[in-house]
Amino acid sequence: PEDQWIRPNLRVRVVSKSYRRGSFYNKKVRLLDVVALGLCVCRADDGTLLERVHQDMLETLVPRGEGGRVVVVFGKHRGRKGAVLERDSRKGRAVVQFDDEKDVAQLDYDDICESVG
Q: Measured between alpha carbons, how far is 55 from 6 in angstroms, rounded to an integer?
């Protein structure tokens, strides 16, 4: 579905203060599997398995440095993988070079997510 952006091997941030009483709020996690529409399983950096996490509890992450790996999760380039060539944090945009065609696009931070797979 168009509104489901989660997929395995993304690095995301937990933005829910209510999930597990907020103990994972603002923590970065790896998305392991999508188990149902909008629901996933994640693993925290400390190894804790987080089950039944809804995508509304998560937000995308953009890699810190140039060369970081991303997947496009929204927009016309959705599903394409690439590398960040440059970031503009004031505008919240990054220039991404795609793996498949080697073409380049400028994308909003919200449209891309760090890939770890």
A: 6
